[in-house]
Each structure stands twice: as C-alpha cells, then as structure tokens.
Design goal:
The chain is of the alpha+beta class. Helices cover 32% and strands 26% of the residues. The chain has a five-stranded parallel beta sheet with strand order 3-2-1-4-5. The structure holds adenosine monophosphate and glycine. Adenosine monophosphate binds next to β7, β8 and β17. Glycine binds next to loops.
Length: 428
C-alpha cells in the first residue's frame, strides 16, 4: 500500500502540486480540500475549507493521511502544522512560529535586521498619529505595509503623501484589514527588478528550486493595480549564479540560524521575494509556501519525484538533497476574469481547454474554475494558468500563447507580455 496524501487548497498552485504528487510511485491515494475541477482529475476532492483546520485534522485522522501538503499561508499561520502534530500527523509546512515570517511583517523585518539580512530600512508603528507624522517626513515613494495577512492587499508603494496618508488611515483607523492593520511597517522604496527564490528546508539544510519571476500588476508593462500574480516564468535571468550564491549565503543561512536561535526549526518551503539592483539582492518579503503562479512553471521543470523531498522536510531531515530539474525554461500565463482584481463576473462557460491541452508541452492548471451541469465555468478571479515548456524561452512563450488563443469565455483577460522582461534581458 502506498502513501495517502492530502493537499490543502484550491488554486493553480495546488493543481500543480496535485498533478506532480499524483505521479509519484510512492503515492496510492491523493485527496484535496477543497480542490477544484482540474485537481479532481488527480485527487478526490473533499468539501472542507482551508480555514477549517479542526475539520481538516479530523479528516486526516479518519483517513490515516500519511502526509498533508499545505498550499496557502492562512492555515499555516493559524497553526495547522502544530495541530496536526498533536495527532502524530505529518505536515509539509512550517509550524505557527515559523509561519510568522509571512504572518507578521514586523516579525519578519525584525528578525532580518537582527541577523543582518539585506532588506529595506524600516520603522514599526502602532500609533496612527506617530505613523502619519513619520510618513510625512519620509522621502517619496514610501512603502507602507499592514503587519498581518491581508490577502495580498496590505502593501502600498505610495507616490504621493495623499496616497500614503489615505492608506495609513484605512489600515490603522478604518480597519479595512481588521487587526492585521493595527501595526504597520513603513519602509524605504527599493529600486531594481523583482525575482522569487524558493527553497525547501528542514531548518538546517536548504534545497533551492530554480529562480522564477512573477508578474504582479494587472496590465502589460507592469501597469495598474497589484494582483495575486498574472504569470510567471523560470528561470529568471536577473538571478545569475552569483546572485543565487549571494542569496543562499546572505539570506537563507543567517535567517535559518536566527530562527533556530529562537527555537524555531523551520520545515517546508521558504520563498524569498527579492529586489535585485545591479546584482545586489535585498529581501522584500518572505512567504511560507510555494508561490502562485511560480509553482506552475517550477513544477513543470521539476522532473523527478517530488514526494521524497516533501517527506524529508516534513520529518525534519533532508538526507538526499539532489533534485532533477529540466534545463528548459517554462512559463505560465494566467487567464483571469474581466474586471479582476476588482469586481468580476462568475459562472461564464469556458471553451477550448481540452484543445489547448492537446498541444504538446502544455498543461492548463485550474485556479478559479467550477463545474455546472457538466460544463466548466469560471468561479474566481484568476481562472486558469496556461503553462508551457520549450527549448528556448521564446519557444515556451509562443507555445503558452498558442494555447491561450484556443481558450475562450466572455470577458477573459490575460497579459500579453509574460516573459518579455527575460527576453529583453537576454537580448534575444
Ligand atoms: P510584499 O507583500 O511585501 O512583497 O509587497 C508586495 C509588492 O510591493 C512587492 O512585490 C513589490 O512589488 C512591492 N514592494 C514591497 N516592498 C517594497 C519596497 N521596499 N520597495 C519597492 N517595492 C516594494
Ligand atoms: N506569486 C506571489 C505569491 O505567491 O505570493
């Protein structure tokens, strides 16, 4: 009998995880909670919400789940790993103390400062008047971050004092992010190019995935409001081998040591959001989970079995740090509902996914989809992650957009420049 695995989440990242994990010869059964119609091809979906950590624990106990892989940050910050551990259940993902790296910007910035990891200069405020006074003396642009989880909306890079003060008021006085906005971090704005660097760790050893890059803004040319991520590719040429080496030495080694000094042995994924300026990396943020949509191209390049590494991290000892990575570049283009990240319609019938999947080297990962009377319909802001791999980045981009062209629904929106920055950097 092989292992039974539970994947928590319902987005494109979790579809990529389900696709990869279900290919493992070590695994005989995969469940997903709550999953989506794409995930349902690889896993049995159970209608439990990612926030219902007690219900998830009861389910894992009743099904004797061997390994639970947590996709999103919220259950980790809520302490799912600690809760499961009480019943002897193995979880891939950090405990509540470790998850504070994403759950509290103040915790994250303080620990980085303490161990000398390069990051933007900052100050912490829990009093509105003091924060306002400080922000008005700060050079523009100025960056303000709500301390706690705010579904990706808790950060502003303010170009004017009006914008800064209005974000500060909404966060600290109106309370649009609830208690997550009781404290704020005000920090200097860094220049450069962003990249994601994601590693597996057992708290001591680090196994890096290849670099990747997200496209956070809604519009071509990185214009318009921030989103959960409109597309990603791997590798990111801005992350040269020298920069990677620096990040491992200057960021991950001191951070893991500082965590251990606080009795936090961090197990799972550690994702550094970096700003790279002329080869100098600085940390913008940490996430305690795989990136979405970075996971989609990364898993397309991950050619070995993912499960042994997940198990080793969850058990707290990486013995075999070798991973097989396809050298070819991969790219994911996110197709979203028109209007996202603002208001958008749901329930639009989606056509052409099976035609797109007939193209070689293409996988269509589901994010916000649903089924209605046997038809695939839209059910969220980010709907699909159309992912392709190719001999060259240019080829992978062309293949992904060929697939995108075959998929239709009313109001479908996607960026047309995913990967362009990497092509320009390479001079292709
Ligand atoms: P965070 O959630 O901290 O990653 O912030 C979200 C986005 O805001 C980042 O992906 C950056 O695009 C931007 N950002 C955050 N902090 C800074 C900073 N100090 N300087 C420039 N841009 C930033
Ligand atoms: N792609 C950014 C994130 O997952 O937070």
């Amino acid at each position: 009998m092989g292992l039974s695995v539970l994947i928590i989440g319902s987005g494109g990242r979790e579809h990529a995880l389900a696709w990869k994990i279900s290919q493992s010869p070590l695994v005989s059964k995969v469940y997903a909670a709550p999953g989506n119609p794409g995930i349902a091809r690889h896993a049995e979906c159970v209608p439990l919400s990612v926030d219902d950590i007690q219900g998830l624990r009861d389910f894992a106990v009743s099904k004797r789940i061997d390994l639970t892989v947590v996709g999103p940050e919220a259950p980790l910050v809520a302490g799912i790993a600690d809760l499961f551990a009480k019943d002897g259940l193995l979880v891939f993902g950090p405990d509540q103390a470790g998850a504070q790296l994403e759950g509290s910007k103040v915790f994250m910035k303080t620990i980085l400062q303490e161990c000398g990891v390069p990051t933007a200069d900052f100050r912490v405020f829990d009093d509105y008047d003091e924060a306002e006074q400080y922000v008005l003396t700060h050079r523009l642009p100025v960056v303000i971050k709500a301390d706690g989880l705010a579904a990706g909306k808790g950060v502003v890079v303010a170009q004017t004092y009006e914008e800064a003060v209005s974000f500060l008021k909404e966060t600290m006085e109106t309370g649009v992010f609830g208690s997550a906005g009781d404290r704020v971090v005000i920090e200097e704005c860094l220049a450069g190019e962003e990249a994601s660097y994601i590693v597996f760790t057992d708290g001591y050893k680090v196994v890096p995935l290849p670099s990747s890059q997200d496209h956070k803004r809604i519009g071509d040319g990185d214009l318009g409001p921030n989103t959960g991520g409109m597309g990603a590719y791997s590798p990111a040429p801005v992350m040269t081998p020298e920069v990677e080496e620096r990040v491992l030495r200057e960021v991950f080694d001191p951070l893991l040591a500082a965590l251990r000094a606080r009795k936090i042995v961090y197990r799972g994924i550690l994702y550094a959001g970096l700003m790279i300026d002329n080869g100098v990396p600085r940390v913008l943020e940490f996430n305690v989970r795989f990136g979405d949509p970075e996971a989609q191209p990364l898993f397309m390049r991950f050619s070995g079995d993912l499960v042994p590494l997940l198990l080793q991290c969850a058990r707290g000892k990486i013995d075999d740090a070798s991973i097989e990575i396809d050298p070819r570049p991969a790219i994911c283009v996110v197709m979203a509902s028109g209007g996202y990240p603002g208001k958008y319609a749901k329930g639009c019938p989606i056509e052409g996914v099976s035609d797109a999947e007939k193209l070689s080297d293409v996988i269509v990962f589901h994010a916000g989809t649903a089924m209605e009377q046997g038809r695939l319909i839209t059910g969220g802001g980010r709907v699909l992650g159309v992912t392709a791999i190719g001999e060259t980045l240019k080829g992978a981009i062309a293949r992904a957009y060929d697939a995108v062209d075959l998929i239709h629904w009313e109001g479908a929106y996607y960026r047309s420049d995913i990967g362009k920055k990497a092509l320009l950097r390479r001079g292709v």
